[in-house]
Write a structure and sequence with these properties.
By secondary structure, the chain is mainly alpha-helical. 28% of the residues lie in helices and 6% in strands. Helix 4 crosses helix 10 and helix 7 packs parallel to helix 8. The longest helix is centred in the C-terminal third of the chain and has 20 residues. The protein starts with a helix and ends in a 5-residue tail after the last helix.
Length: 379
C-alpha cells in the first residue's frame, strides 16, 4: 500500500492539473465539484457551456452542459447564454454574450440572426453545441425571417445548434396577385362589315353615316378603305322594312354592332304600338344572332306645325317606352341617344322640319360617334 501511495505522489507531482481534469477547478485552480465554470442559466441555453471545449489543459468541465437550456421559450428568446463558464486554466473566460436567438413572439420573425457567443474572451472557446438552437418562432409567416440563423448558428467554435428558425423564409414572402383587365376600349378591332346602319330617310338622305365613318378612320377604328354596311332606306318603318335591313346584313355577315333609328314613319302613320312590338322582335332576333351592342339614336323634335300631330305626339308617346326597352336589354346591350339634347335651339339643323341638313347630319354624326367611343361600340 505504501508503494502505491508513493507512486501516486510521483504522478500528481508530474501532472499537477490531473485533479482538475477529474473533478473540475475554479479560476484559482482548486477543484470545484460544482462545475461552476460552465454553468449557463437554466432555460437560457443560447450557448451550452462556452467552456465545454477546453483551452490549454482545461480538461472537460462538467459545467459545459447547461441544465435545461435546450428548450426555448415560445417567444424564441433563448436567453443570454450564461457566463461563458470560466474556461479551466484559460484565464478569465469573459461573458459569452450574444446568445439571444429570436426575440420575436411565437410564429413571428426570428430576430436572433447570429450568435456572438461562439467566441469567448478566453483563449479558445469551443462553443460546444448550441443547445438553444430550437426556436419555436422559426417558421415566419411574414416573408423572410429576420432571424436568418438560430442562436449559435455562427458560433466560431464547435457546431451550431440546429435551430428550427434558421434562415426560414416565411410563407407570406411572395404576394400574389394577378393583373386584372383594365377595362380600356381597344381600337382597331372591328371590320366595317361587322357594323350595320339601319333606319329611314333621316339617315339615308343625310351625311350621318359618312360623318361617323370619318371619325372612325381618324381614330384608327376603321381602315381607310373600309366602310360600314348602310342599309337605311327612305320610307322604312319598324313594323315594315327596318327589321329586313338588319336581316339582310346578318345573313351575309357577322354583325356585331348595329347603329339605328326607327319609328318615325310608323308615327307619321300614327302606328306607334306596332313600332314598339316590332322593335321588341327585332332586338330578340339580334340577340339570337349574337349582336354585341346597339346604338339607338332617336329623333329630335319635328319643327313646324305640320309635324305636331300625329308625328310629334306619337314620338312623345313611344319615346319613354322605347328607351326603357333599349335600356333593359342585356343581349344585345343597347345604348340610347336622344337627339333632342343637341338639336334643340338649332333651326339650321333641318330644312323641312324633319330631315337633317348637312349641319344637322354632322351634329348627329358627331354625337353618335361620341356615344360609340363612350360605350366602346365598333372601336
Amino acid at each position: 500500500m505504501s508503494r502505491i501511495k508513493l507512486q501516486l505522489r510521483y504522478v500528481v507531482a508530474a501532472f499537477p492539473a490531473l485533479p482538475c481534469m477529474m473533478i473540475g477547478c475554479g479560476d484559482s485552480g482548486t477543484p470545484d465539484p460544482g462545475g461552476q465554470g460552465g454553468s449557463s442559466a437554466a432555460g437560457t441555453g443560447a450557448i451550452a457551456g462556452a467552456a465545454a471545449g477546453v483551452a490549454g489543459n482545461a480538461g472537460t468541465a462538467s459545467g459545459g452542459t447547461s441544465g435545461t437550456g435546450g428548450a426555448m421559450s415560445a417567444g424564441g428568446s433563448s436567453g443570454s447564454g450564461g457566463s461563458g463558464g470560466g474556461i479551466a486554466g484559460g484565464g478569465s473566460a469573459g461573458a459569452a454574450t450574444g446568445g439571444t436567438a429570436g426575440t420575436s413572439p411565437a410564429g413571428g420573425a426570428s430576430s436572433g440572426g447570429t450568435s456572438a457567443g461562439g467566441t469567448s474572451a478566453g483563449d479558445t472557446s469551443s462553443g460546444g453545441t448550441s443547445a438553444g438552437g430550437t426556436s419555436s418562432g422559426g417558421a415566419s409567416s411574414g416573408g423572410t425571417s429576420a432571424g436568418g440563423m438560430s442562436a449559435g448558428g455562427t458560433s466560431s467554435g464547435g457546431a451550431s445548434g440546429a435551430g428550427m428558425g434558421g434562415a426560414s423564409s416565411g410563407s407570406g414572402g411572395q404576394s400574389g396577385g394577378s393583373a386584372g383587365s383594365t377595362g380600356e376600349c381597344v381600337t382597331g378591332q372591328t371590320a366595317g362589315d361587322e357594323v350595320v346602319v339601319i333606319g329611314d330617310s333621316f339617315i339615308e338622305l343625310s351625311n350621318i353615316t359618312q360623318t361617323i365613318e370619318s371619325h372612325a378612320k381618324d381614330a384608327g377604328s376603321l381602315e381607310q378603305n373600309d366602310g360600314y354596311i348602310d342599309n337605311s332606306t327612305s320610307g322604312s318603318t319598324l313594323s315594315g322594312g327596318i327589321p329586313g335591313q338588319y336581316e339582310q346584313a346578318a345573313n351575309a355577315n357577322t354583325i356585331r354592332f348595329v347603329l339605328m333609328n326607327g319609328g318615325g314613319n310608323d308615327c307619321i302613320a300614327d302606328n306607334g304600338d306596332a313600332a314598339l312590338a316590332a322593335a321588341e322582335d327585332l332586338f330578340a332576333s339580334m340577340g339570337e344572332k349574337d349582336v354585341e351592342k346597339v346604338l339607338y339614336f332617336f329623333y329630335p323634335d319635328p319643327v313646324g306645325s305640320q309635324w305636331q300631330s300625329p308625328l310629334k305626339a306619337c314620338l312623345d308617346t313611344i319615346r319613354p317606352t322605347m328607351k326603357a326597352m333599349c335600356d333593359g336589354l342585356t343581349k344585345p346591350k343597347c345604348y340610347w341617344l336622344d337627339q333632342r339634347e343637341f338639336w334643340d335651339g338649332h333651326p339650321e339643323y333641318t330644312g323641312d322640319g324633319i330631315h337633317p341638313t348637312d349641319a344637322g347630319g354632322t351634329a348627329s354624326g358627331d354625337a353618335i360617334w361620341e356615344a360609340m367611343v363612350e360605350h366602346c361600340i365598333a372601336q
